[in-house]
Amino acid sequence: MSVGIRHDDLRRRNRAMVLSAVRRAGQPSRTEIAATTGLSHSTISAISADLIQEGILMERRKGETASLKRGRPQIGLALNPEAAAVVTVVLSLNFLSVAVIDYAGQIVAEEQLRLDTLTVSREKLIGECTAIVRRRLEDPDLDLGSVARIAMGIQGITDSHARAMLWSPITPLTDIPFADILEAEFGIPATMENDCNMMAVALQWRDPDRYRDDFIAILLSHGIGMGLVLKGELFTGTHSSGGEFGHMIHRPGGALCRCGRRGCVEAYAGNYAIWRSATGMSEDAEPVDVSDADMRALAAKAREHDGPEREAYRRAGEALGFGLGSLFALIDPAPVAMVGVSAAAFDLIEPALREAIAQTAGGQHSKSISFDTEPNELPLIREGCAMRALTFVDQEIFAPGAQAKAGASGKNVA
Amino acid sequence: MSVGIRHDDLRRRNRAMVLSAVRRAGQPSRTEIAATTGLSHSTISAISADLIQEGILMERRKGETASLKRGRPQIGLALNPEAAAVVTVVLSLNFLSVAVIDYAGQIVAEEQLRLDTLTVSREKLIGECTAIVRRRLEDPDLDLGSVARIAMGIQGITDSHARAMLWSPITPLTDIPFADILEAEFGIPATMENDCNMMAVALQWRDPDRYRDDFIAILLSHGIGMGLVLKGELFTGTHSSGGEFGHMIHRPGGALCRCGRRGCVEAYAGNYAIWRSATGMSEDAEPVDVSDADMRALAAKAREHDGPEREAYRRAGEALGFGLGSLFALIDPAPVAMVGVSAAAFDLIEPALREAIAQTAGGQHSKSISFDTEPNELPLIREGCAMRALTFVDQEIFAPGAQAKAGASGKNVA
DNA sequence: GACTTTTTTTCGAGGCTCGCAATAAATAAT
DNA sequence: ATTATTTATTGCGAGCCTCGAAAAAAAGTC
């Protein structure tokens, strides 16, 4: 069950702490690292000497900060971009996007292509994914460090081990073990991540002040998804990627949801649901795809004058509000980021949402709940995949010292 | 933020592992402990020698198992009951119960009294609680080891630091910092725990096969409460005790709940809600207290013939089912234990519950979701408090070696 | 009674972190 | 220009801790 701590774990963990501190802080000095980790200066000195000698970290004199303090100037430590690289693959509706990212987090190459995901065959989908990655990896213009990990993000349900896509709204195909496929193809460790979880990871890196320990990222798009961070950790279900906020029940037996059931939050707040309601279609009408442009036009019309369009957004807000209220009954209120095309229409959604939330158990502090919006989900998803892959690398490089890469043959510190 | 691992932490943690292994396994040999913790035999030997010498563990020849295996017989290690003691205080509707428990988990003394919690004054409530604890602690018949911790459990909302009762259905009083009060009164560290959380903790110890990593304990009584264990850890909200399952929204704007809002699960499934519905009262009728005997009579009538009583239980099942369905959308299905007086009527509730759950996202595996029932919540709550207090002691005794107790003056191992 | 088997203890080796002292590298003062 | 001051980093020895191998202990088996 629980495993004891061995002696060698100690150094491994502390190396991980140092790497994490550097990745988080950007260019901290040894002294700063000692302060944030609580380890002694000697220890930090020893560990960073190892890491530099192995080519994972590098010293960088802080050129800019010339003369602020009196004593010996601090030497900034930075991640060596060439220590490794990772690949991100983001598959979304009709769109496939790949990026190569160096160890310091900078994009060094990318490629995108359109692809009819709703009708594509299984073979073709897998083929396109591996081909695009192969093209980026074999680009002769690019002098890559060893690529250490691939992180793939997709809208839909993934299994809890981050190995396979179980179900996705962007394709009728199910149960594709992308992680295994990519690993077999390239011999590089890979994971299959849920898009909303990656959005949450990205927010944590982008704005650690606001998104630190507990927060929620909600995707308002064709479907409704959620990424949840609790106590600083990404929360996933016990079997699947979890957090199927969009399929919490808003009205038992209510409107038809894309998932085939009735009354889900998504059946009132997804793009298709807003469209269905705004155009006077029945709640039982089959969900249809609505383009982002159409949604923006709809929002514009709703802002223009009161009518069925505005009412549709109001109902979406109500569903989201009751869903959030039920969620807050379980986990207490937390900051929320609204992401995706309908986040741009959040002004139309917010009043009804707040009104609904105030009627729930979580609504006691409804005034203090704050919402942020970000209309474009793709960059967030890619960023999350990148950070996820990189932190995995951080925790593999230090493991048994070897196998990471870097020309370090002798382990003795000079 | 994140803190590095110091060298001295190592021994502390491994001591904790050994204690935890012994508490869990009952009477394991050193060899078994080495196997479960993954530490070497030498290490276990050294640590257990320390613990025995400090009076925390004791050797116990396994008298019963005379001749099974060939080699040197194993020596069982057991917790020394006299190493410490803890006190549990359980406050429930009109009832206050205290127990003293030795370090090995056996009850050595207890006292219970009736008390009109709905009308009692703040001073009197606090006074009764401290007085009953004092009587047990000062009992001259009892030769206690040093009492190392007090754990108090109460139905209602507690703060996330386990210090105070924020709100409870059993009294109109709010915000009583019981943990601080008990600490000030007795100079013994104390915590204030939520009853459903303690039920979950107790289940984890009672039946670790069924209730291990992920499960749910639901209290079906006057109110509806929940204790949630995820990934082996008790899940609490970020600010309060969390898991207010009873106040997830079942029907927006629906029946009046005891909390003053409308449409909560509890407003359909709490004792008062079942009663209200069975007796043909309006959904807007003020919640009233219903005795356990009345509820049992109601269940009997519902079993006898179809009618409003049976329909009331059906509606309760529906509310619970949709609530669980929404919950399962977030965390994936898990085993459920139904506790409390209405758990005895679970036969009346289950069909509608399963039907509702099957209509939700979590219902994909509704067949495999299994329910257990336990009509009596009090023993569970006390057991949970006891185990919580004892595991806290486990993690305080090893800390800086000293201050725990035990006559160990010299630290050198002979 | 000698041999096997299994458990537990002993002992030396190797690692890790820490505190303290020493060294390095800048600015401020004279 | 030189010395003093301040702050950052490194070196070194001490003290723990865990591990592996071997020894000791305590049974059963032949």
Folded structure, characterized:
Chain A is an alpha/beta fold. The first copy, chain A, has helices at 7-25, 30-37, 41-53, 122-137, 178-186, 195-206, 266-269, 271-278, 292-304, 308-331, 346-358, 377-397, and strands at 57-61, 75-79, 85-92, 95-102, 107-114, 147-154, 157-158, 165-167, 190-194, 215-220, 224-230, 233-235, 336-339, 371-374. A five-stranded mixed β-sheet of chain A has the order 5-4-3-6-9, sandwiched between helices. A five-stranded mixed β-sheet of chain A has the order 12-11-10-13-14, with helices on one face. In chain A, helix 2 packs across helix 3 (41-53), helix 8 (271-278) packs antiparallel against helix 10 (308-331) and helix 10 (308-331) packs across helix 11. The two termini of chain A are 41 Å apart. In chain A, 50% of the residues are buried. The interface between A and B is large, with 60 and 60 residues. Chain A binds a DNA duplex (30 and 30 nucleotides) through helix 1 and helix 3.
Biggest sheet character of chain A: 5 strands, mixed
Beta-strand content bin of chain A: 15-25%
Shape of chain A: globular
> Which two chains have the most extensive interface, and how many residues on each?
A-B, 60 and 60 residues
Count of discrete alpha- or pi-helical segments spanning 4 or more residues of chain A:
12
The radius of gyration of chain A is 24 Å
Q: Mean of residue pLDDT of chain A?
A: 88
Uncertain regions of chain A: pLDDT < 50 for 5+ in a row?
401-414
Terminal Cα separation of chain A, in Å?
A: 41 Å
Oligomer: homodimer
Count the strands of chain A? 14
Structural class of chain A: alpha/beta
H-E order of chain A: HHHEEEEEHEEEHEHEEEHHHHEHEH
Percentage of residues assigned to helices of chain A: 25-40%
**Reading side by side through the largest sheet of chain A, how are the strands ordered?**
5-4-3-6-9
